[in-house]
Amino acid sequence: MLLIGSHVSFGKDQLKGCVEQSLSYGANTFMFYTGAPQNTIRSAVNTDINGEALKLMDGKISIENVVCHAPYIINLANNKDVSKYEFAIDFLKKEIKRCHELGVKRLVLHPGSSVGINIDDALKNITYALNIALEDDEDVIVALETMAGKGSEVGSNMQELKTIIDGVEKTELIGVCLDTCHLNDSGVDISRFDEYLDEFDRVIGIDKIQVVHINDSKNPIGSRKDRHELIGIGTIGFDNLIDVIYNERLEHVPKILETPYIGNSDDDKERIYPPYKFEIASIKAKKFDGNLRANIRDFYRQ
Ligand code: FE
Ligand code: FE
Ligand code: ZN
Questions:
Q1: Distance between CA atoms of 12 and 10, rounded to whole angstroms?
Q2: Which domains does the chain have, with CATH numbers?
Q3: pTM (global) more than 0.70
Q4: Which residues contact 82 (CB under 8 A, 6 or more apart)?
Q5: Is 70 exceeded by the pLDDT of residue 136?
Q6: How many angstroms separate the CA atoms of 251 and 244, rounded?
Q7: N or C: which end of the chain has fewer CB within 10 A?
Q8: CA of 35 to the centre of ligand 3 (A)
Q9: Which residues surround ligand 1, an ion (CB under 5 A)?
């Protein structure tokens, strides 16, 4: 069965709000941040709301397939500022606890940015941090995201991810999240995705893949930019993304859209309409929607 969903927002209704948004998009999985992705202010998990969310999910979305994403400002790669590094480790530990309380089993994490230290030390810092964060947990898998290689991002090639994974003691709690835009921007040709999977299987093991982020890219292969585009409108293209989404080897892995909201017109800076309902429909039909933007606007404007 195809597992397809999108990024949704976790507001005051917490997981219940996420489920409502996802069902309105025709999704059977979703991904959320426990607060704003760019800060670390977090509120406690509301167990009453969570019970309601689980009821609402019944038969439509399995909690096993739901994904949480850690805020992207926590950086485990650099320890120059010790208090910042310790804060990041502690935050990750708490984030894992929040996932556990919510019943969520998969947590996506950006490995970090080395900013001025050498890559070997950066990899060691990440591994050390993960070993502390995973210490007292039993069931939340941290999935390291494949990165575009913007700035000094760690994790834009398989070897770096392998080094981190090899250093993590609790092997069963570490995995990978593939991101199609990031792979493209880091130099992987998505039109030859099966060859990438073969290599991934040799180097890391295909069973480590916990999540796939489905995004088109605004930039060419190897640009190291990381700017997501709507499905079928970017440089990867609809057919190549469909081949990733329907790849038999990843059938059981949740596919999550992180494509950008659109504005009232093409040059509108304010992005207000989520594209997910329409992208999911075209993915299910395996048919590119040539009027994607117009159809989204028409639907949400009324
Ligand atoms: Fe990410
Ligand atoms: Fe991503
Ligand atoms: Zn990205």
A1: 7
A2: 4-301 (3.20.20.150)
A3: yes
A4: none
A5: yes
A6: 10
A7: C
A8: 18
A9: 145
Distance 181 CA to ligand 3 centre (A): 7
Q: Which long-range contacts (CB under 8 A, 24 or more apart) does 61-64 make?
A: 61/5, 61/19, 61/22, 61/23, 61/27, 61/28, 61/29, 61/30, 62/28, 62/29, 63/103, 63/104, 63/105, 64/105
DSSP one-letter code for 253: S
Separation between Cα atoms, residue 267 and residue 237, nearest integer Å: 22
What is the DSSP code string of 194-249? HHHHHHHHHHT-GGGEEEEEE-EESS-TT-----EE-TTTSSS-HHHHHHHHT-GG
Ligand 2 centroid from CA 166, angstroms: 22
- For the stretch 229-273, pLDDT in tens is 999 999 999 999 999 999 999 999 999 999 999 998 888 888 899
Q: Tell me phi and psi for residue 96, to 5 degrees.
A: -60, -40
CA of 76 to the centre of ligand 1 (A): 15
**Count H helices, E strands: the chain?**
10, 10
Is a pLDDT exceeding 90 seen at residue 161?
yes
pLDDT digits (tens, 9 = 90+) for 94-133: 999 999 999 999 999 999 999 999 999 999 999 999 999 9
